C-alpha cells in the first residue's frame, strides 16, 4: 500500500492505468509518507555540540526544542520516506536499511542525490551529466558503475533526497 497526497491522485491513477507505475527497484525497499496530522513530538536540543574528537565539559543549556518532523520535512504533501537496500551510495553516507527523506517538490540539479525511475524501477543515485549532456545516475561506491541514460530508456527524477534517518540498534 502506498499513500499519496490528494494532489497526486490523478497522476497515480494514470500511471496505474498505463501500468508504468515505478516498481521497487535495485536499492529501494519501500516507500511511505509522513503520518497525516502527526502530533508534535518535541525533544530538547542542547546548545552545546557533542565532541566527536576530544571530549569537552557538558553544558546543560537547552537552546530550543526540536521536532524531527519539522526539522526533516519542509513540504509535507510532497515528502516521502524510502528505505534503502544495498551499498551503492555508501560513500555518500547512505547505508543499507537507512530511511531517506525524499521531497518531490524540490527541483533536481546536477550533484543532488535523487530517487529516479529508470525503465520503471526506482533507484537512488547522484544526478550527473555525461559529456554529451545526457543525464546519468552516479553511485557513491567504486564497485558500481554509473547508469547512462540513453535514447529509448524511460527516465524520470522522482524526488530529491533531503535527509536520512538511521537507527543504530
In short:
With 169 residues, the protein is mainly beta. Helix content is 8%, strand content 34%. The chain has helices at residues 9-17, 68-72; strands at residues 28-32, 43-46, 62-66, 79-84, 99-103, 113-118, 121-129, 135-138, 147-148, 155-165.
Please give the structural blueprint:
Layout: H1 9-17, E1 28-32, E2 43-46, E3 62-66, H2 68-72, E4 79-84, E5 99-103, E6 113-118, E7 121-129, E8 135-138, E9 147-148, E10 155-165
Antiparallel strand pairs: 1-4, 2-3, 4-5, 5-10, 6-7, 6-10, 7-8, 8-9
Would you give an account of this structure?
By secondary structure, the chain is mainly beta. The protein has a single domain, classed as Umud Fragment, subunit A. Helices cover 8% and strands 34% of the residues.
- In N-to-C order, the SSE pattern is HEEEHEEEEEEE
Q: Which class do the helix and strand fractions yield?
A: mainly beta
Q: How would the global form be characterised?
A: globular
**CATH class label:** Mainly Beta
User: Please, how many domains?
Assistant: 1
Low-pLDDT residue intervals, each spanning 5 or more residues: 17-21
| CATH T-level topology | Umud Fragment, subunit A
The neighbouring-strand order within the major sheet is 1-4-5-10-6-7-8-9
Distance between the termini: 26 Å
Largest sheet: 8 strands, antiparallel
How much strand content do the residues show?
Answer: 25-35%
The H-level CATH homologous superfamily, spelled out, is Umud Fragment, subunit A
